[in-house]
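Two folds, back to back.
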Amino acid sequence: MSATASAAVPTVKLLIGGQWVESKTTVWRDVVNPATQDVLARVPFATADELDAAVASAQAAFKTWRKTSIGVRARIFLKYQQLIREHMKELAAILTSEQGKTLPDAEGDIFRGLEVVEHAANIGTLQMGEIANNVATGVDTYTLLQPLGVCAGITPFNFPAMIPLWMFPMAIACGNTFVLKPSEQDPLVTCRLVELALEAGIPAGVLNVVHGGEDIVNGICDHADIKAVSFVGSTKVGTHVYNRATLAGKRAQCMMGAKNHAVVMPDANKEQTLNNLVGAAFGAAGQRCMAASTAVLVGEARNWIPDLVSKSRTLKVNAGMEPGTDVGPVVSCAALSRVNGLIERGVAEGARLVLDGRNPQVPGYEKGNFVGPTIFAGVKPGMSIYDQEIFGPVLIIVETDTLDEAIELINRNPNGNGTAIFTQSGAAARKFQEDIDVGQVGINVPIPVPVPLFSFTGSRGSKLGDLGPYGKQVILFYTQTKTITQRWFDDSTLSVGVNTTISLR
């Protein structure tokens, strides 16, 4: 953190009222390439006045945007998805430079967000109300799904393309206006996506961008003109956002921390299962809220540990820009220190370190924040590496004798983001999906994030708020249902007198 912006590197701008403006703040943070430690840009921690200006811009734009026809809104997002496709390589390169994930994974990050943009273009069928004719004599009732007003989104560092694209396209397509606060660690690709959104035709003031830390987050939660807040990030911050925003009378949805278990049955297809586990545990350097970070080996599947270690050793650790890289750096020096510290605690608390990925040699990137694939066996609940979300390329292995024990173990964990089972038994799969208390379940699918036709349905300690992001659920989150009951009179239905009862006849 620095007090002033340096002229040697570019500064990240705020978007207010359709204009990219330089912040007047005195507090800046470096945006750093995690593979090299090169400073790419400086991001401002916006002032309270700048947040107020962004919200005021959104509030003014809402007056006209809410009246914009569904067809106009849909065509903007049709154009937007085209622009994202055309700029995919550029966007991926920006994302990799500031976040660290490999170029193919960066393209995947963008593509999963692009799917939501495509869904937003279908707003004409998504935002339809209901009607019932003649609910009483000459009386019809129908509903409208009307926009709320100014909405806001707070997004994390690990998916700087996908998660902003979860938020503002659906909110804006519903007729709302939006204030976006990207992660201060990697805001460059988010801002480039916003530039493309403006190019697609989103009017001035409908989408605004502010940057910052705790003060801006609190300002968003407290601001009287913001009606709804969407958040993805850590459990600590998400709980704070949910409590503060709802106390201020806002709608809030907070997707938070996880500890995702992948159950491996002895009858699972061994090669497919091992490939899936390794990819889901170590992809994106483990910095996914849906990473399969905990393998639960049931019965004879415990004999697969040497094969799992052997396959993990084959992954290539390098800078995300380098061809053939499997595992890039973690996002920051602080993240590297935290991951290495948890590995040390795992050893100290008695887990068996069967693959140590600390301090890998990466020629040409000696300053990078690298941790190689790391595996612990003999892990028990109560150990730090089990109880905490490591958010690094660390896979922990727990062993159980039966599927019932595996289900009981997972259901005792406070998190409920995602889980998976690998088996060739339909009976085992059905039992698992029925008895497991986790919101998103994969059957021979390691990362069961649904496509936007559905919604993200993490549960328990991984989610606060009833409605998930994107899909049908988010239409309800970003709209207010208004019910209209109407009767039109003609000579044959004129009232014959005063009726003091509550019923309609």
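---
second:
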Amino acid sequence: MPEATSSADFAQRAVDIARASVAAGGLPFGTVVVKDGAVLAEGSNCVRTTHDPTDHAEIRAIRAACRTLGTEYLTGCTVYAIAHPCPMCLAALYHCAPDEVVFLATREDCAPYLAGGSDKYFEPGTFYAEFAKPWDERRLPMRYLPRAGAVEVYRMFGERDGGETV
């Protein structure tokens, strides 16, 4: 891992990771997690090589950083991502709570190069528009099938952990 020491260096490292991913036939995403002025973890998008739709650069970097820190929180960290995170990565970032997320390109900047293809959901704006809709109006068919036992599991968790926030 190259030594980076400033915001500009960390941002450039995210670009370099994404560039290397594209050169290797992968997708154009790179992420760097920084704590106390040093790179804690890095990630590139490996969806095409692992065939895992969750194997995004941000997720890989979050996982590595959290393992290194021994916690599910990135308190005190800054995350540098080449582009505005997708909803999955954004949700993960909210959950791990870094001090800051720095993104280097907007969804609108990237959209002309990502739209189309065989994936009907891949166009960046589509995700955000879909999540803004009520669950029963989204393109991905969803069905609510209530089961009392489902909520019971959460009650058990709340009692076990004394209402600790997830």
